[in-house]
Amino acid sequence: MPCPILASVTNNPDLPVFAVVLAAGCASRFGATKQLSEFDGAPLARLAINLAHDVCVNHSMLVVGHDWLAVSAACQPLPGFLILNDHFAEGIGASISRAVRSLRHAASAIIVLLADQPLITREHVRGLLDAWSGADNAIVATAFAGTVGPPALFAHGCFADLWQFTGDQGARELLFDDRFSVTTVDFDDAAFDIDTPQDLDRLRSRT
């Protein structure tokens, strides 16, 4: 499946922010390809990449792995870039690393979006972008249910750490690292993510 190729360019603070949708996981608790399950009339992966495109236009990336042909097909026409994570079974850290390796010379920051948070709005993601100071060591995360997490923006100064992620190592640990300046934006509906079919049923009945 053809996809655009990112050029390797010199690091530049004026480079665009990329929205990265992580949709590579096996979703073992779900019992099927979760990314293809429909909510609000579209597959979860499609909703997430549409959101990424709404905020960052063509500076968006879909990271696929498990059942990647079907997930990719569900997102056509793909507005941005497609990355295949061959090591998706290792966990989310491998997908984060794969995305950052591809974008490290092309982005001033990335916004990490999960395909299983269907209540995230474009207004909230734009709010993360608006809250970024432009500092290279900045992180802007979502605050919900007494914690912080994704969606989250990571400036270029975080890339060296994100690049080294492996296994189930998520980016949350950087939110508590004193090297980084962390800002949060409240969004209670970020607490609703899809791990099981029952979660999806409850979310459908809520809306």
Name of the CATH homologous superfamily: Spore Coat Polysaccharide Biosynthesis Protein SpsA, Chain A
Residue windows where pLDDT falls under 50 for at least 5 positions: 1-11
Please tell me what the overall shape is.
globular
Query: How much helix, percentage-wise, in residues?
Result: 25-40%
Number of helices: 6
Major beta sheet, strand line-up:
5-4-1-6-8-7-9
Assigned CATH class? Alpha Beta
Spatial separation of the terminal alpha carbons:
35 Å
Please, could you describe this protein's structure?
With 207 residues, this protein is α/β, with parallel strands linked by helices. The protein has one domain (17-206): Alpha-Beta Complex (Spore Coat Polysaccharide Biosynthesis Protein SpsA, Chain A). 28% of the residues lie in helices and 23% in strands. It is built from six helices and nine strands; from the N terminus they run E-E-E-H-E-H-E-H-E-H-E-E-H-E-H. The protein has helices spanning 44-56, 68-74, 92-103, 122-131, 159-163, 197-206, and strands at residues 17-23, 38-39, 42-43, 60-64, 81-84, 109-114, 138-144, 147-155, 181-186. The strands form two sheets. The chain has a seven-stranded mixed β-sheet with strand order 5-4-1-6-8-7-9, sandwiched between helices. Helix 2 (68-74) links the parallel strand 4 (60-64) and strand 5. The longest helix has 13 residues, at 44-56. The termini are far apart.
